[in-house]
Design a protein that fits this description.
225 residues, alpha+beta, 4-stranded antiparallel beta sheet, globular, binds 3-iodo-tyrosine
């Protein structure tokens, strides 16, 4: 194969136009059923489902196709416990004042606090790391581009993939998150923790804050020119 070879696009699927709006609306309805939850069941979820969802995430577009991400999928009870303890310690100081009044006010409708039992109860935690240096080959050490955008896209793909597979998720971003680097044994110089996802079945008593269901009107979020 030539170094810069292009191959014909062979797997694009075109739908009849009358099906397209229906498909778009079905996808919308399905995505509207995705809610962040904070009460997870400990029902096990097979590893191969999580692996397939991570493979979906890794199809996201990325700067120069460098794929500047690494996913650590955690089901070890011991590692989940370490993450819960470290996160709760940080959240404690966050909720006790480090966040500041405005931030704490913004969080009130969500009803969150420093207790994060789901970090131990949910069957899977997925820590997403971004990489400063890399390349198409795993061993490359070139500059990565649009790292935040790329990893954000991959994380979005991952959330959708997990939802599509029938799993509930929560995004978690304790501040600072560097404890994840140590617990997950990642390279401190090249990688930064980007987000922690919790994935599993909702607990029977899982709730969604009413506040989270309020979405802005279309005219506020979009302009057609
Ligand atoms: N990381 C904290 C606080 C928190 C911050 C935002 I912005 C949220 O949307 C939700 C929570 C916590 O997880 O409690």
């Amino acid at each position: 194969m030539k170094e810069h070879a292009n191959i014909p696009l062979s797997d694009f699927v075109e739908y009849p136009q009358e099906e397209m709006l229906q498909r778009a609306n079905e996808y919308l309805a399905n995505t509207k059923r995705r809610h962040s939850i904070r009460s997870f069941s400990d029902r096990p979820v097979p590893q191969d489902i999580i692996e397939a969802c991570i493979k979906t995430a890794a199809t996201a577009p990325s700067g120069a196709n460098h794929q500047p991400w690494h996913f650590v999928a955690i089901h070890s009870q011991d590692v989940k416990k370490q993450i819960r303890h470290a996160a709760e310690e940080l959240e404690q100081s966050f909720y006790e004042g480090r966040a500041g009044e405005e931030w704490l006010d913004a969080l009130k409708p969500l009803g969150t606090d420093a207790q994060k039992p789901y970090l131990e109860h949910a069957p899977w935690l997925i820590a997403v790391f971004s990489q400063k240096k890399g390349g198409i080959q795993t061993e490359d050490k070139n500059t990565n581009y649009y790292v935040h955008e790329s990893v954000g896209l991959a994380t979005g793909f991952l959330i959708q993939a997990l939802h599509n597979a029938g799993l509930a998720t929560l995004t978690h971003t304790p501040k600072p998150m560097s404890f994840l680097t140590d617990i997950c044994g990642r390279d401190r110089d090249n990688e930064r923790p980007y987000m922690l996802l919790i994935a599993g079945y909702p607990a029977d008593d899982a709730t969604v804050p009413e506040h989270a269901l309020v979405k802005k009107p279309f005219d506020d979020i979009a302009t057609i020119l």
